[in-house]
Amino acid sequence: MDVVTALWVKGAVLTENSPAARDLFDKGCFGFMLGDGRLQLSLLEACYLVEKKRLVVLDGRSKELSFDRLCQRAAKVEHDFWVRYPVFKDFRNRGYVIKTALKFGADFRIYDRGVKPGEEHAKWVVFPVRESAKLTWQDFAAKNRVAHSTKKRLLIAVVDDEGDVSYWESRWLRP
User: Does residue 110 belong to any structural domain of this protein?
Assistant: First the structure.
């Protein structure tokens, strides 16, 4: 598999216009295509692809950013990066497509294995939280309402200090 080259541009990661970059989009459901044939990746996607050695990200001086350096930069730009990245990575490693869910009021939406965004609806909305975080019943009810109103299942992704993730699913049942 070809390694794709990308550029860090003001907190965004833009790939080259290449068949390998299009494959990341077409086959892997990473990022979104720009009009000029380049792919814009989220910072989570870029870090994941660098860690998997499928992407090389260059800074403004054409110097390669290591995985650690890229994550450091991403953590400065993206809220709760070190809670969100382990969740993103875990789902991708399990074969799911994971996308942002900001318009739903959640962190992520998850598509079942083999499903591309746009072909079917996402199955879950996910809210990553630190293991040490306190979640009130009001917080839980609000998250559950978001999931219910978008016809998705709620997943609370609990990330411990080692970056391991446990999931708690909640859904409505009719007795």
Answer: yes
Q: What is the pTM of this model?
A: 0.93
Which member of 52, 63, 116, 121 is catalytic?
Answer: 121
Give catalytic status of residue 121 as yes or no: yes
Listed as ranges, residues in the chain with pLDDT below 70 are none
Sheet containing 124-130: order of strands: 97-100, 108-111, 124-130, 153-159, 165-170
CB half-sphere exposure, 155, CA atoms < 13 A: 23
Residues 34/16, Cβ–Cβ less than 8 Å: no
Known active-site residue 148: no
Domain count within the chain: 2
Pairing label, strands 4-9, 32-33: unpaired
User: Catalytic: 79?
Assistant: no
